[in-house]
Specification:
globular, about 40% helix
């Protein structure tokens, strides 16, 4: 949609311990790395101490813990001095409630109820009585409430009390308010305000109201108007009442900004073409790139339900377990519909429809529901006219529900239970899609250039389940799935699927500290909601995998066996890591580099992937690399990845004319399937795929790259290419970036 979009972005997790001035200190390094824009985590005022910024409590101010408005101005100035721009992340869908008094709008609503100035900001069902605040530990905990200095206090939560309220018991006090405190476990059942997915501490915001949009977006739009911000990343638009309408309003207010949306697309699902955006944040590209390095000929057998059944079962379960309050609100609009709509939501194969666009997805869900539950066919037929009318409140609210069901049922549950090959278990991914053949990748890349050339591409984000190089190493196992067989069963975890996740995680991230591994396993096991859960942790089960973590330290033979496997696959994992990085950085779209991933990246799911990054080390390594007389080796330092990252980003920034087209480049010879190559219009990418099998076959042996005419130079090594033999071109690295002289 915009004529001038970034050539490359670098994602920085700005937060209280790495504030706006710290980010400003990266400007010189990011220029040298080759990006055109710094891409920041949310900067509006969030819950005090928030490590991520997505729990905004005041959208009218820049977070003072980050440096406030002046800190933002200093960052913008520092970037401009280096010829860089700024992209910011915004969160229109929800606001944070974890510390109620920190959110002035929510605090006012709790104090004054429907008469509050901010009552229209939040999607509250006022007909259902006082606002439900689920913070109590148990019914008996009401005795621990107290009134101090005009506030009702419960542990760290503080709530206002009505003016003139004196005396009485704590129970009497909170019964007179515009809210009522309940056991936190009953929030899913009793909640009467819309929330973000199933997160009670994040209240939905009614940005469909023009006054609310104006109030919550004025600060961000001032940044754009002042020239301090060049682009906006919109967090999870699927939670909004009308994503398309919202995006049209945002585009009208920021017509020249680069605008991308965190829209999770399922396999084959297009981005709604009527949205006035430049593309997605790149999970669709992540799936294509990572799949390119997975061997489709070695898909493991499935022991248990297939992926489609697992996903359906978990969507149905979370609909009943997490969203009874949302179903109750739908039932109030169409009495007797709750059970039917719960079944229908579980049969959506995409996050949501945007009716009238997306009618085919709605119809497919209806057909699937009738197949599974023919007894509901008549009820579905009765509801269909209302569910397909965008002007009907039932239609609007049901569309908001399906996205939440998909996120919690698939992304946050099924992907921790179905552990056949966890490198595929990523946001927007399809774990049953075992590998992406080069022909399929080329088709997707060409379509991306035609439809969304300014959309973002990525390999890692703050929401990915594991770091890009963990996935790259795991991809090697797709070539030899039996490598893990000697480990299976030795952890002593009484859940075979979770033990499979355990060993894949260990091998993929090795060496990993016990603390990091234990934290990850606890989150993964509770998200899976099978042997333990967040609501009811099973201490015995969690003790079993904790013992398995200790065993890795205590059993020398087990540790040696793990290290033997890692030693075998590590070099091939590095090859995959360099290959997928170069492909992502040079394919159609705007490449984003997540902080720290210019070196090897071994992170797991958040908060592990938000660990501090040693930027001083990276700055020093880049300086040394630029003055080195010879290309660095591919080794544990990760400097080879820094070379690939910096050279590809610099070429895209300095020679954009070389990236205007997309053509696959053929490879001939017996091992032609081990290479993927494409020409962007003068910049030609070559990458090795399935390196373990290639090595077993003896390496490159006469394969020929069909180079277009002219003389070519590899910008990674500086070598002039005098041969079309793949073995010669890739004699230094498993990748090459060629430029026609």
């Amino acid at each position: 949609m915009v004529a001038n979009f970034p050539t490359g972005t670098y994602r920085v997790q700005v937060r209280p311990d790495f504030d706006l001035d710290a980010a400003a200190g990266l400007a010189g390094y990011l220029h040298d790395l080759g990006v055109s824009h710094l891409y920041s985590a949310p900067l509006l005022t969030a819950t005090p101490g928030s490590p991520h910024g997505y729990d905004v409590v005041d959208p009218t101010t820049v977070n003072p813990q980050l440096g406030g408005r002046e800190g933002l101005r200093r960052l913008a100035d520092a970037l401009r001095q280096q010829g860089l721009g700024l992209i910011v992340d915004i969160v229109p869908n929800h606001m944070g409630l974890f510390q109620p008094a920190a959110n002035p709008a929510w605090w006012d609503v709790l104090t004054h109820g429907r008469s509050s100035t901010f009552a229209d900001w939040f999607d509250i069902d006022w007909s259902a009585g006082p606002i439900v605040v689920p913070v109590l530990g148990a019914a008996s905990d009401v005795s621990e409430l107290s009134v101090i200095d005009g506030e009702l206090r419960y542990y760290e939560h503080r709530f206002p009390i009505a003016p003139g309220t004196t005396g009485g018991s704590p129970q009497d006090v909170h019964d007179r308010q515009h809210y009522r405190l309940v056991d936190w476990r009953r929030g899913n059942e009793l909640l009467n305000y819309r929330r973000f997915f199933a997160v009670t501490e994040l209240a939905g915001v009614r940005v469909e109201d023009p006054a609310v949009f104006d109030a919550t977006h004025a600060e961000v739009l001032r940044w754009v108007a002042a020239g301090d911000v060049d682009g906006i990343r919109v967090d999870h638009p699927d939670g909004l009442r009308d994503p398309g309408g919202y995006l049209h309003t945002l585009r009208e207010r920021a017509p020249d900004a680069w605008l991308v949306v965190e829209k999770i697309l399922e396999r084959g699902e297009p981005l709604p073409p009527h949205w006035p955006v430049d593309g997605t944040t790149g999970y669709d590209a992540l799936g294509d790139v990572c799949g390119l390095f997975i061997d489709p000929s070695h898909a493991p057998a499935v022991d248990g339900p297939d992926w489609a059944e697992e996903a359906h079962e978990q969507k149905l379960d979370v609909t009943r377990r997490l969203f009874p309050a949302e179903l109750r609100r739908l039932d109030a609009l169409a009495p007797g519909s709750a059970a039917v709509l719960g079944e229908l939501a579980a049969n959506f194969h995409v996050y949501r429809s945007y009716l009238p666009y997306g009618r085919a997805d709605f119809d497919a869900a209806v057909a699937e529901t009738k197949r599974r539950r023919p007894d509901l066919a008549d009820a579905l037929d009765d509801l269909e006219p209302r569910l397909t009318d965008p002007a009907d409140e039932l239609c609007a609210r049901f569309q908001q529900l399906t996205g939440a069901v998909m996120a919690k049922g698939v992304e946050d549950t099924a992907m921790y239970r179905w552990n056949r090959f966890i490198a595929l278990n990523e946001v927007g991914g399809d774990p049953s899609r075992f590998g992406v053949p080069p022909e399929e990748f080329h088709t997707a890349a060409a379509r991306r250039l035609e439809d969304w050339p300014a959309g973002m591409t990525t390999l890692s984000t703050h929401d990915t389940k594991r770091g890009e190089d963990v996935r790259a190493r795991l991809a090697v196992l797709s070539e030899a799935p039996d490598l893990l067989t000697p480990l299976l069963g030795r952890a002593g975890i009484p859940d075979p699927s979770f033990e499979a996740l355990f060993w894949q995680t260990v091998v993929g991230a090795w060496p990993i500290s016990a603390d990091r591994l234990q934290a990850y396993l606890t989150k993964a096991a509770r998200e899976a909601n099978r042997s333990t859960s967040w609501d009811a942790p099973d201490e015995a089960f969690e003790a079993r995998f904790a013992a398995a973590v200790r065993l890795l330290d205590d059993d020398p033979q087990l540790r040696a066996d793990v290290e033997a496997i890692v030693t075998l696959i590590r070099p091939h994992g590095w090859s995959n890591a360099l290959g997928q990085k170069l492909v992502q950085l040079t394919m159609p779209g705007v490449p984003d580099v997540y902080q720290g991933t210019e070196l090897w990246e071994d992170s797991l799911v958040d908060p592990d992937n938000r660990r501090p990054v040693d930027f001083a080390e990276r700055r020093d390594l880049l300086l040394a690399l630029d003055s080195a007389a010879a290309p660095p080796p591919v080794d544990s330092s990760g400097v080879a990845k820094l070379l690939v990252t910096s050279r590809a980003l610099r070429l895209r920034r300095d020679r954009p004319e070389l990236f205007q087209r997309y053509h696959p480049v053929d490879v001939t010879g017996d091992s032609h399937g081990h290479a993927v190559a494409f020409d962007r219009g003068g910049a030609l990418t070559v990458a090795t795929r399935l390196p373990l099998r290639l090595a077993a076959a003896g390496g490159w042996n006469g394969e020929d790259l069909k180079l277009p005419g002219g003389a070519w130079t590899d910008v990674l090594t500086g070598r002039r290419i005098g041969s079309t033999r793949v073995g010669d071109i890739l004699s230094t690295y498993p990748v090459a970036l060629l430029v026609r002289e």
